[in-house]
Specification:
It contains 11 helices and 9 strands. The chain has about 260 residues and is of the alpha/beta class. The chain folds into 2 domains: about 160 residues, TPP-binding domain (Rossmann fold, 3-Layer(aba) Sandwich); about 90 residues, 2-Layer Sandwich (SIR2/SIRT2 'Small Domain'), CATH 3.30.1600.10. It has a 6-stranded parallel sheet, sandwiched between helices. The radius of gyration is 19 Å and the shape is elongated. The structure holds ligand BJW and zinc ion (ZN). The site of ligand BJW has 35 residues, from α2.
């Protein structure tokens, strides 16, 4: 069954040279990783500021550190799903392709996507807030295991934190610059599994549209950008994205 029937969508996808995709927590939901907001969200009981801010980490280091270790446990038992693999395939098909993710789970890379632009860091990396020393997850686990208080310290005495972007913190400069550039220059922008509530990532679809891109949204529910998108494909990304790729392959076939 065909997914893309809208004539304008067909035209735009046929002529598109550069495709940019922005993903959020929804793409990993079918891998068993909870999203942040909504009914099944991680933050149903605790507010974001209680967990995902430097203040929270500084005040409640053990609680926040345990929360990240718990999420890593979930991640170790997860694997990429059909949505992640479909985006790897899209990278191989499109003339120019950028994959921007807000996710910290590394599942796109595990699915084989290359040059992934990580806006909010990676949960399996850690660093000292004092001397900036980097710690692999294995090194971190070793320190954590020998620490009964669950407050991991660097050799210099500084606290060790996950290499993720919390509220009020700046995004990695190189990543956000690449992301803005990609949004400005792409022909088609696809927003997948994000509620589009967190800036600056949520500005990217709007910027793309303002600069002439055709804007597609893939999500199980309406989001903050649903009213401005050109095409909404409603449903789980693990189902929709593989169908999208099949249609796209037909569209870009020569003489089609
Ligand atoms: C499916 C599906 C399926 C489900 N298939 N779909 C007022 C006060 C304080 C701050 C602010 C304020 N107003 C604005 C701000 C700024 C703030 C912000 O945006 N806040 C808003 C919440 C109001 N932003 C920041 O602070 C950012 N930094 C910044 O602005 O810096 C300025 C600065 C400049 C210079 C110097 C210093 C500062 C930083 C934002 C960092 C966000 N970090 C987090 C945590 C990362 C670490 C961790 O993982 O623990 O990133 S928050 C969290 O939200 C995480 C996510 O990446 C991000 C986005 O969430 P996402 O991916 O959209 O997930 P959900 O759960 O919201 O949505 C899931 C979607 O999937 C839903 O739509 C479902 O329907 C869908 N879905 N199943 C398809 N199967
Ligand atoms: Zn240190």
């Amino acid at each position: 069954m065909k997914l893309i029937e809208d004539p304008l969508a067909i035209k735009e996808l046929k002529i598109a040279r550069a495709i940019t995709v922005l993903t959020g927590a929804g793409i990993s939901a079918e891998s068993g990783i909870p999203t942040f907001r909504g009914e099944e969200g991680l933050w149903k009981e605790l507010s974001p500021e209680e967990l995902a801010s430097f203040e929270a980490f500084y005040k409640n280091t053990a609680v926040v550190t345990e929360w990240y270790q718990h999420r890593r446990d979930i991640l170790y038992h997860s694997k990429p799903n059909a949505g992640h693999y479909a985006l790897r395939e899209l990278q191989q098909l499109a003339s120019k392709f950028d994959l921007i993710t807000q996710n910290v789970d590394g599942l796109h890379q595990r699915a084989g996507s290359m040059d992934v632009i990580e806006l909010h860091g990676n949960i399996l990396e850690n660093y000292c807030i004092n001397c900036n020393q980097r710690f692999s997850q294995e090194e971190f686990d070793e320190i954590y295991r020998h620490n009964p208080n669950h407050i991991p310290h660097c050799y210099c005495g500084g606290l060790i934190r996950p290499n993720v972007v919390w509220f009020g913190e700046a995004l990695p400069e190189e990543s956000i610059e690449k992301a803005y550039d990609s949004a400005i220059t792409c022909d088609v922008f696809i927003s997948v599994g994000t509620s589009a509530q967190v800036v600056p990532a949520s500005n990217l679809p709007r910027i793309a549209k303002q600069n002439g891109a055709y804007l597609i949204e893939i999500n199980t529910a309406n989001t903050a950008i649903s009213d401005i998108v050109d095409l909404r494909l409603e449903g789980p990304s693990g189902t929709i994205l593989p169908m999208f790729i099949e249609d796209y392959k037909q569209l870009i076939k020569k003489n089609n």
